């Protein structure tokens, strides 16, 4: 890749015109230097160059503040090194991505719905969502799934590891479901004073306003009450925290032990045991999964691989003492697992993927 080709690629990345393959190239090229909000001196830049490629032509008295949380931020900063930067970029993007044995493909549209009569239906992986209208169940494109034998009752949408799916409830509320999650809901809210649903895992809600009928989401550690708003709930049972992030509107978060709190837009509540705190939300990171990204900020390897295990449908096994170093980064959720693992491997963490007889792979992590 010459200088002009590199410039053209960066321009198209910045304007969102890259293909998925080109996005992955740019992001994988810069992710390993993703040290958020730190000053990188001339000495540090020179050391990086020596470790990876040998000496680079670095101008004197250069001090850059590189935020590599977004790859384009890194590109803009590094471009201050003029000719040397493009030489760096050319060499860096030409690094081969190691092909891992037993590479793992990303997740996709995958879910089941359990009808009120107890029957479970596997949903099509060529569709991305379903609509509930009374006892009628259909895909977004209008294709009928089932009428639940004419019953008005409770259904459960279950999204397994390696899956994602959407649902529009009978009141028009839209829900995006992440992997390892389930939503229990009535097929109609007409006869109820409240719109009650139960969530396990993670989901993003766009609740249809109805002042007469509050919308209430119950999860294993909290209850969220709203009238009409957009928000995300992350409440996996294998996580220590339960996080509710408000995008717009207002929500009330409570549990049996805590005084209810009301969130404002761009705030999130964090419930840990019998304590709750409110903090500013990083919406880009929180909603990355919904927007097709695997994104992490100041996360250690175990936190990252929890997300990875859910989306790539793998089991993770740690052997030896793993560094508690934290990382910042973002890749497309459509990337194979090897793209992320090759990047993380620059930090002297080693990965081996073992295929099992069933469809689930095992990821072995060693120092």
From TrEMBL:
Stretches that traverse the bilayer: 68-89
GO terms of molecular function: sigma factor antagonist activity
Protein FecR C-terminal domain: residues covered: 294-356
Keyword Glycosyltransferase: no
Record's keyword terms, sorted: Membrane, Transmembrane, Transmembrane helix
Pfam families assigned to the protein according to its UniProt record, in alphabetical order: FecR (PF04773), FecR_C (PF16344)
Keyword Membrane belongs to the record: yes
InterPro entries xref list: FecR (IPR006860), FecR_C (IPR032508), Ferrdict_sens_TM (IPR012373)
Ranges of residues in domain FecR protein: 158-252
Protein name, per record: FecR family protein
């Amino acid at each position: 890749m010459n200088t002009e080709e590199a410039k053209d690629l960066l321009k198209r990345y910045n304007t969102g015109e890259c293909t998925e393959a080109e996005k992955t190239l740019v992001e994988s090229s810069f992710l390993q230097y993703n040290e958020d909000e730190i000053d990188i001196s001339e000495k540090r830049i020179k050391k990086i160059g020596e470790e990876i490629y040998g000496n680079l032509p670095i101008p004197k008295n250069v001090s850059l503040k590189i935020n590599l949380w977004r790859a384009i931020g890194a590109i803009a900063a590094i471009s201050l090194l003029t000719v040397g930067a493009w030489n760096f970029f050319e060499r860096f993007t030409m690094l081969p991505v190691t092909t891992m044995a037993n590479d793992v493909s990303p997740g996709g549209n995958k879910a089941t719905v359990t009808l009120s009569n107890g029957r479970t239906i596997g949903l099509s992986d060529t569709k991305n969502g379903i609509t509930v209208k009374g006892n009628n169940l259909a895909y977004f494109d209008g294709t009928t799934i089932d009428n639940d034998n004419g019953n008005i009752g409770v259904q459960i949408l279950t999204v397994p590891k390696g899956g994602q799916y959407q649902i529009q409830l009978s009141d028009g509320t839209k829900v995006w479901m992440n992997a390892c999650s389930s939503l229990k809901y009535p097929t109609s809210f007409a006869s109820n004073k409240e719109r009650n649903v139960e969530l396990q895992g993670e989901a993003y809600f766009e609740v249809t306003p109805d002042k007469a009928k509050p919308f209430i989401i119950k999860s294993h550690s909290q209850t969220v009450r709203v009238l009409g708003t957009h928000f995300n709930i992350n409440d996996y049972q294998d996580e220590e925290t339960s996080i509710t992030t408000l995008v717009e509107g207002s929500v009330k978060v409570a549990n049996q032990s805590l005084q209810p709190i009301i969130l404002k837009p761009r705030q999130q509540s964090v419930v840990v045991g019998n304590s709750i705190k409110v903090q500013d939300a990083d919406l880009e990171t929180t909603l990355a999964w919904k927007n097709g990204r695997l994104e992490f900020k100041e996360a250690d390897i175990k936190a990252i691989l929890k997300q990875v295990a859910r989306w790539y449908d793998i089991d993770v096994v740690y052997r030896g003492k793993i560094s508690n170093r934290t990382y910042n980064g973002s890749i497309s959720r459509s990337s194979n697992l090897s793209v992320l693992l090759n990047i993380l491997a620059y930090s002297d963490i080693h990965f081996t993927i073992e295929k099992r007889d069933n469809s689930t792979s095992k990821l072995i992590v060693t120092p």
